[in-house]
Amino acid sequence: ALLDLSGVHQVTGTWMGSTTLPCTYVPSEGFTQQTLSWSVERDSSTSTILRRDDSGDHILLSKFRDRVSVPKDSPGNASLLIENLEMPDSGHYTCQVIWRSTNNSLITREVTTAVKVVKVAATKPIIRAGELGLTVPAGGSSRLTCEASGSPPISYRWFRSGPGGKAQLLRRGAELAWDSLRPSDSGLYFCEAQNR
């Protein structure tokens, strides 16, 4: 077990988000990484996504172009980062590393990770207050920030409780800011988070 790849059996990624498929080893004297490749198997066919050799990194599947990368200057780390995950990215991904030893023999190891891409509803948002908190002197500036998690993109809307309990839409965006607060700005504010 001189050279061994370690990875994980399954990774769940969020649609439109990004995920890393771990594939690491401990570099060992006398062994040089010759090639590294990542392939994906779905619908019983296997295709190579990325291949790294002496001439650099080659993305062989166009649907992954500009969306996948492997760390550059980190020996022993062959992990694959996939960005902007799409639903069809679900499948079995195999990391294969071939080393050449000092006596010119080749050693091959591989590790396979199942990737599942899921759509995640936006969570109930939380509101964070600015430095001064929720009680601010008149004339002061303040901001409220709305945060939620889930499949991006997440859109935010701010409301204020109006007369008769009606909500008035104030603005879209994660932040609500005031340069100079007036007593009339006191009230109940709501934030809504929404994704697809």
TrEMBL record:
SUPFAM superfamilies attached to this UniProt entry: Immunoglobulin (SSF48726)
Gene3D superfamilies: Immunoglobulins
Superkingdom as given in the UniProt entry: Eukaryota
GO biological process per UniProt: negative regulation of complement activation, alternative pathway; negative regulation of interleukin-2 production; negative regulation of macrophage activation; negative regulation of T cell proliferation
Pfam families per record: Ig_3 (PF13927), V-set (PF07686)
GO molecular function, one term: complement component C3b binding
Residue intervals of the Ig-like domain: 17-112, 125-196
Entry-linked PANTHER family: V-SET AND IMMUNOGLOBULIN DOMAIN CONTAINING 4 (PTHR15466), V-SET AND IMMUNOGLOBULIN DOMAIN-CONTAINING PROTEIN 4 (PTHR15466:SF2)
Protein name: VSIG4 protein
Organism of this sequence: Climacteris rufus (rufous treecreeper)
